[in-house]
Amino acid sequence: MTDMNQMNFDHAATTTAATEVFPTYHAEDLARGGNQARILLNGQIYSLRITRAGKLILTK
Fold this sequence. Notes:
By secondary structure, this protein is mainly beta. It is built from 1 helix and 3 strands; from the N terminus they run αβββ. The longest helix has 4 residues, at 27-30.
């Protein structure tokens, strides 16, 4: 298991403005090797699912 603070960040996370960088997470790391993760936002739980086709689905 990888600690969220120790994850490697992808260079693709940078925007064209060199001063702004967005955190990037590997979906597989969020799912801890599985195909689903839960994300909490403002007291609401969302499900992130990795499909067999390698797509992401985010549902409430």
